[in-house]
Every structure is written in structure tokens, then in C-alpha cells.
Amino acid sequence: MAEEELPGVLILDIGGTHGVLENLATLLKKHFHLITMKEFLGNKEEMSKKIQSIFVFECRPTIDRELLESLPNLKVIGNSGVGVDHLDLKMISSFGVKVTNTPHAVADPTADIGMALMLASARRLVEGNV
């Protein structure tokens, strides 16, 4: 499938401090045409028609009314985290846009770290590692 046929996804950036991790971007590129905020802002008129989704990574890009109004073909906002507290769900749904998230993505690793910390504390492991 040619890149132009792939659905456009708006992301903040690839790499850097707040961008999508490069490994993740490589995976996303197999299924989507990635459009960075810089590309979008540089050519809003053309890019706004191509974007059907926004991929929110580490609460970025910020989803506000102005952004939603500029994306007439937007269908879904995919949030890469557990919570959606940083998204105004009522406003987003007023545009007919769906929101997804990954509620159980970090449940097991969080439990593993919690258990490891409790065991390390009970056995005074940190003190012995000095």
C-alpha cells in the first residue's frame, strides 16, 4: 500500500524529548502515514485533509478546540497511556471523534515493580548494596 493511501496520523514528533519513540514510529509507519506537528503547522490546508487520527504520546500533542476544528476528517484519538484525564472527552465527542487508550498496558509491570520494591525493603537489599 502506498504511503498516500495510508491513513494520516498526527503526532508531535519522532524522537527527541517528547516525540514518539523511534521504534514505535517504525511500527506505526507500516500502517499509517505519520504527520508531525511541524509538518501540519507548515501546511495546514493540505495536511488537515489527510489526518484521520491523532496519536497522543506522553500527553502530547495537546488536544484543544482549535486543533479539532482544523481537522475535518478526524475520526479517532489514540492515547498511548492508561488515563484520559488530560483529554476533554466531552468536547472531543462533540466533534464526533472517538478516544481510545490502553488501560491494562502497564498493570503487570507495575505489580512486578511493586513486589520487587516490597521484597527489597523487607530484605534490606538496598542497605546491603552500599
Entry keywords:
five-stranded parallel β-sheet, D-isomer_2_OHA_DH_cat_dom, 5 strands, Rossmann fold, HPPR reductase, 130 residues, single chain, hydroxypyruvate reductase [NAD(P)H] activity, alpha/beta
In short:
With about 130 residues, the protein is of the alpha/beta class. The protein is about 40% helix and about 15% strand. The protein has one domain: 3-Layer(aba) Sandwich (Rossmann fold), CATH 3.40.50.
H and E order: EHEHHEHEHEHH
How much is the radius of gyration in Å?
19 Å
CATH architecture grouping: 3-Layer(aba) Sandwich
Strand content: 15-25%
The low-confidence parts are none
- Structurally, the number of domains stands at 1
Task: Look at the structure and give the CATH class.
Answer: Alpha Beta
* Mean pLDDT across every amino acid position: 91
* Largest sheet: number of strands, sense, barrel closure: 5 strands, parallel
Count of individual helical segments: 7
What is the number of E strands? 5
List the helices and strands and how they pair.
Blueprint: E1 8-11, H1 22-29, E2 33-36, H2 37-42, H3 44-50, E3 51-56, H4 65-69, E4 76-79, H5 89-94, E5 98-100, H6 107-122, H7 125-128
Parallel strand pairs: 1-2, 1-3, 3-4, 4-5
Structure description:
With 130 residues, the chain is an alpha/beta fold. The protein has one domain: Rossmann fold, CATH 3.40.50. The chain is 40% helix and 16% strand. The chain contains 7 helices and 5 strands; from the N terminus they run βαβααβαβαβαα. Strands 2-1-3-4-5 form a 5-stranded parallel sheet. The protein is elongated. The chain starts with 7 loop residues before the first strand and ends with a helix.
